[in-house]
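Before a colleague's protein record goes any further, I have to sign it off. What it holds is a sequence and that sequence's fold in token form. My question to you is simply how this chain folds and whether the tokens agree. Thanks in advance; the entry in question is below:
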Amino acid sequence: MRIIMFTLLITAAIFGSVLYTSCRLDKCKPINCAHQGVCQGGTCICPSGYEGPNCETVTRDKYIGNWRVFEKGSNSIAAQYPLVIDTAGRDEAITYVVIRNLYSYFKKPVRAYVDGENIIIPNQRLEGKMVFGRGVLTYNTTYTQYATITMRYLVQDTFTLIKDDFGYESAINFSDPSVWTK
């Protein structure tokens, strides 16, 4: 009986020490986070502008390309037109993009930035108008090359102060957001 108890005790001690040391392994040791990402508890924490399991993907890349816009503003008729989202430039931050042909009006590119699934147009004055807004990107889960941005933005004439709203102030004027498809 003593031998059995002694064997059980030794077996439990060995099992406990193996379990203890296996729990203390560095979960970040086999992980290499790109672009100055930091591993915490086995998961990469990515800097702004990067995503993916190892911070290997540039966030703005999923926005870059040709889009088809479908919209009707609070002061404009229904319209369809092409739009391009492009990188802002070599010297710009990795989160910045430019939107070309926004509102089927602006000849100069409208500056914007991306933050995960959000695209934000900060308040800016271009060609006699003020523009700002924000949108949310969603992917087609079956065909990931296809995406949709539900964009809520507002364009205001700086002289007449007339607003054309695309879902930005929908609680006030019941306007619908602009829908961009890729």
Notes: Residues 26-55 form one domain. The first helix runs from residue 2 to 23. The chain has a mean pLDDT of 89. The CA atoms of residues 100 and 108 lie 7 Å apart.
